Amino acid sequence: MTEQFAARAAGYERRFSAVFEEFFDTLGTTLDAPAFSRFTPECLELLRDLSLRGGKRMRVVLLHEAARLVTDAPVDGLDAAALSIELLQTHGLVHDDLIDDGATRRGGPSTYHAYRARYPDHPRAALGLTVLAGDLALALSLRVLLDADLPAELRRAMAEVQTRAAADTFVGQITDLERDFTGPVSEDVLHQVADHKTARYSVLAPLRLGLLAAGTDPAPYEEELRAYARLVGICGQMRDDHLDLFGDAAVLGKPTGADLREGRRSYTVVRLLEAASGTGRRVVEDALGDPHCTPETVAAVREIGERLGVGAAMEREMRRHAERARALAAGWRPRWREDAVAFFENVPLWSVERTR
């Protein structure tokens, strides 16, 4: 990321961190919960901890830069939109870690494992509370838009964007699980899952919300925005899958090899199975779906992938998709502001170069 763009992104992140913290500081006074309840404040505490713990806030950056496509003047509604985006992300993280039985997230305990630690003798309650915590984050992501001090038509349009993004994401999660029941997985299936599960809420929704807040109807540009978001989403999902095997656990904040242990036909796993044969393929197949797969076994699978060039081939494929997205963004120049267009040109490359 260039120094100029990095400075802008850091500014968005700093501002949003303060906004997000203030939101949680006041949430206890605005949420109508029975006075006797101690589980409700505990739920808010866990959501706050997960939400404020870290993350790249790239969706917030995309939101602000989407508004900058239209104007560099201050834009009302971006704080509410950013809160909605990140609360939807919190919802996704809570439920992802429940689905995957993930113990850690962003260098700390997942919400599910935090509840399990608090209520070790009540596993069903821990599971139920985790589901409800994620559901509450989703409801709050819509409520912040409905409560925003904005024209009613804009509030409605923003809430519609987020509702559709949430629905698309849930379909993506469903098909992500379904994918592992369907036998051999094609590249088209992987791309469709990435589009629904990642691209539509992480890229397309921030683009739509930023344009709406800046006073521009995104509908006339829907086809090209969708194409751009899909390519960036594929890049991002491929990078996530690549890092799950070839990344550094210390940098990621969680162990590598989760896709292997869960038996997930990720981009990396599919390419490993396509490339490996003989003893190497048996090592991969034995590790796939083994919840007790050791770090040593994960390291052995990683070595097989490196030896067969799987990691390098994925890097090349990610860059091809990134270049296609970059070319799409370059086509926005006649219509929108130069510096913001340049930002979106570079987003796909940053996506494939990240290390966490």
Low-confidence stretches: none
| Total strands | 2
Could you spell the SSE succession in H and E letters? HHHHEEHHHHHHHHHHHH
- What's the CATH first level of the largest domain? Mainly Alpha
CATH homologous superfamily heading of the largest domain: Farnesyl Diphosphate Synthase
Provide the β-strand percentage band: under 5%
How would you describe this protein?
The chain is an all-alpha fold. The chain folds into two domains: 1-166, Orthogonal Bundle (Farnesyl Diphosphate Synthase), CATH 1.10.600; 218-356, Farnesyl Diphosphate Synthase, CATH 1.10.600.10. The protein has helices at 3-30, 39-52, 58-68, 78-100, 111-118, 123-146, 152-179, 187-213, 222-246, 249-252, 258-262, 267-275, 278-287, 295-307, 310-330, 338-353; strands spanning 104-105, 108-109. Strand 1 (104-105) and strand 2 form a beta hairpin. Helix 7 (152-179) packs antiparallel against helix 8 and helix 15 packs antiparallel against helix 16. The longest helix is centred in the first third of the chain and has 28 residues, at 3-30. The radius of gyration is 21 Å and the shape is globular. The mean pLDDT is 93. It comes from Streptomyces tagetis. One of its GO terms (biological process) is isoprenoid biosynthetic process. One of its GO terms (molecular function) is prenyltransferase activity.
